[in-house]
Amino acid sequence: xxxxxxxxxxxxxxxxxxxxxxxxxxxxxxxxxxxxxxxxxxxxxxxxxxxxxxxxxxxxxxxxxxxxxxxxxxxxxxxxxxxxxxxxxxxxxxxxxxxxxxxxxxxxxxxxxxxxxxxxxxxxxxxxxxxxxxxxxxxxxxxxxxxxxxxxxxxxxxxxxxxxxxxxxxx
Length: 171
Hints:
Elements: H1 2-40, H2 48-77, H3 84-115, H4 122-155
Helix pairs in contact: 1-2, 2-3, 3-4
Protein name: DUF2975 domain-containing protein
Organism: Sporosarcina koreensis
Pfam family, one: DUF2975
C-alpha cells in the first residue's frame, strides 16, 4: 500500500513539474519572444498578437488535461479508479488531446499559408507534427482506458460511492 501511495505521489509531482514550467513560459517568455520577433521581422509584426492569442488558446486544453490527470490520480489514490468520475475525467483528457491536435493542424496550415516559401518553416512544421502525434497517442490511450474503465464500472456491483456521477453521455 505504501508503494502505491508513493507512486501516485510521484506521478502527481510529475504532473506539477510539467505544468509549472509551461505556465512560467506562457507568462514570462512567450510575450517577450513575440515582441522580439516583431522587432526583428517588422514585416510580420502585425502577427504578434494573433500568435500570442493562438499560443494561449493552445495552452488552455493543455492545462485542462493536466488538471484532469491530477484529478484522475487522486481518484486512483482514493480507490475510485473504476468510477464514473474517472471515466468522465478520461473523456475530458481525450477531448483536450483532440483539441490540441486540431489547433496544431490549423497552426501548421496557417504557417504554410502565411509564409508560402518566404522563410524556412520546416522546423515549425516538424514540431507541430510531433505535437499532433503525441496528442493523438494521448487521445488514443485515454479512449482505451475510458472504454476499459467504463466496462469495469458496468461489471462492478452497484455501489453508491462509485456510481455517484449522473449519466451525461460518457462516450
